[in-house]
Amino acid sequence: MTGDALPGGVGGRVPFGARLAAAAADHGPLCVGVDPHPGLLLEWGLTDDAVGLRTFARIVLDAVGGRVAAVKPQSALFERHGSAGVAVLEEVVAAGRETGTLVVVDAKRGDIGSTMAGYADAYLRDGSPLAGDALTVSPYLGFGSLDPAVDQALATGRGLFVLCLTSNKEGHEVQHARTDDGVTVAAAVAARAAALNAGEDPMGSVGLVVGATVGDAAERAGVDLVHVNGPLLAPGVGAQGAGPRELTRVFGSARAQVLASSSRGVLAAGPDVASLRAAARRAADEAAAALS
């Protein structure tokens, strides 16, 4: 079920937060990354060009489309092939819509003024071939710089995932820094998302990206994940090291809001469609057990 297909809600659509909650209830709280790394293309016996990229994407969507809550194509791995690669990304967005699978475009866009408005137009506007159901964005030019994306997303029933606590070793340099008010940048980002989601049921559409391998970072940074009242996209599940124990440690009582993201943990089972499908089902079941 995608934003373009459902009646009701903002702009004639059920908002992304509600659609994601329904999809997770139906299929489990799992988002499968569509990440055509050069090495993975080689492992699958595919060429590192637009032809191999298209075959890779088709196999992944054949395996998991309509069977998982969401898919998350990594825009950079399509962009590296130029316009032909971006065309394949557009096909992934369209295929997700056709199979009723939510598409989170992982582009981590962040800029100011008319440039941010341009990104919002490209990835969140009705009719744009790159507009999935949600977009990852970076708030590190100030949360207010995201206003064009916030406005466009909420007006069209789409969602955002705002970087908050990432698992890269450099992330703490910015995310754990403190503002003049004495709160960490990560906590300030979470609070802004919470304000946008206030009163939404079952949850709002402005989520956060919180790495599944960040340990007690939320506690140390004073980030209140429970009251964000929005989805928490958790990369790092599976091959990157996060299992049930890590998910519980990171998210605590906010576990019900988590959308676990697994890329290599599922894609390693390819290119056989049945094996990919089985790997995704296992990952979804494991995430559901860990987050229940």
TrEMBL record:
- Superkingdom to which the source organism belongs: Bacteria
Keyword Transferase part of the UniProt annotation? no
Q: Which InterPro entries match?
A: Aldolase_TIM, OMPdecase_AS, OMPdecase_type-2, OMPdeCOase_dom, RibuloseP-bd_barrel
Q: In which pathway does it act?
A: Pyrimidine metabolism; UMP biosynthesis via de novo pathway; UMP from orotate: step 2/2
MF terms per GO, please?
A: orotidine-5'-phosphate decarboxylase activity
Give the active-site positions.
K108 (proton donor)
Q: Which Pfam families match?
A: OMPdecase
Q: Which UniProt keywords apply?
A: Decarboxylase, Lyase, Pyrimidine biosynthesis
Provide the family line.
Answer: Belongs to the OMP decarboxylase family. Type 2 subfamily.
Q: What is this protein called?
A: Orotidine 5'-phosphate decarboxylase
The primary gene name is: pyrF
